[in-house]
Amino acid sequence: MHDEDEEKVAPGFYVSRPLLMIGLVALILVVGVISFIQAGGRQAVGKSWLGWFLPSFNLEIESNAPYLPADGSSIALIDITAQDKHGQLIDGSDIDVIVKRGQGDLTNSPDTPSEASKRVILRAPAQPQTIVIEADFRGLKESITIDVFDPVPPATPMLKAPADKAIIVTATPTLSGQGPTDTQIEVYVDDQQNTVLKIDASGNFAGTLERAIKRGQHSLKLIAINKYGIRSAASSPTTIDVRTPDPEIDLANLRIKPNPAQANAVFYIFVPVSSNTKEVKLTLENTSYILSDRNQSSIYSAALRAPSAPGLYPISLLVTNQGGDSVLAENITSLKVR
């Protein structure tokens, strides 16, 4: 005989329903805890639940070099900082620092900066690899990754266009060529860095000079630089002859309003020029003024004050193209003052 509140779990064996429910709940809890621990939950518990009962700490690790050449001698200085919940620095004697992944010689530094708990020195191995350094303070762990790269310089890039001794009619010519992938191309004009161009996945690059160059002959050289700052040898120099046209003034549409102008009153001048113009400077009574292209329409203008005495005053214009070559239009027009 058995009670109506009992469940049959095996032939001839009965368990009360409340006890059976307790057992099922306990089984579910055990399975859940095991899964939680296997998923890394134990560390989370240690940082949260135990944090209510144990002192809390902050641990940081940083290196003065995110990467090192694989030369067997270069070093990185790694600082570990541990602080209590009040922000007080903790002595580094209880901090363990290890090479978690990769290879490299790790030694304690005798010169730890005052703002750090501990400093260690990592000496680079001779083989390229990724090294992970881990700091452990009472179970609290932080890590940092340092790339150890091949110090061999990249291959020298090649300029395909413009060709050697090419005649160029723009102050910002377009360059194209090939170079090693995962690098950038530094463009040097007359041994001065002018532009940096990106290389695509196929090893090709193309782009215009960032800074315009003047008329005349110029020497172009290329250098490839990788993300570690290692530069290639310079390419053979390519000579180009820049022959940019002079900037032009549209005299038929040059306007001064009003003209005549009242003495000591404001007048306006509008100077239409060619699209290759970079700057227009006006000279009136031995005083120079820079005009502005406010609407990017190649019409340079300014609001100026007329001389205080009546008369006819000549105006000169100095027009400069994008390459920095200038043309002086002396006494090109005049302002009448009454």
Model description:
The structure is a single chain. The protein has two helices and 25 strands. By secondary structure, the chain is mainly β. The chain folds into four domains: 47 residues; 93 residues, Immunoglobulin-like, CATH 2.60.40.10; 85 residues, Sandwich (Immunoglobulin-like); 87 residues, Immunoglobulin-like (Sandwich), CATH 2.60.40.650. The strands form seven sheets. The protein has a five-stranded mixed sheet, with no helix packed on it. The protein has a four-stranded antiparallel sheet with strand order 3-5-8-7, with no helix packed on it. The chain has a four-stranded mixed sheet with strand order 4-10-9-6, with no helix packed on it. It starts with 5 loop residues before the first strand and ends with a strand. 20% of the residues are buried. This is Bacterial Ig-like domain-containing protein. Keywords: Membrane, Transmembrane, Transmembrane helix.
- Assembly type of the shown chains? single chain
Inertia-based shape? elongated
Structural class category: mainly beta
Mind telling me which CATH architecture of the largest domain this is? Sandwich
Number of strands: 25
How would you summarize this macromolecular structure in one to three sentences?
With 338 residues, this protein is mainly beta. Helix content is 9%, strand content 49%.
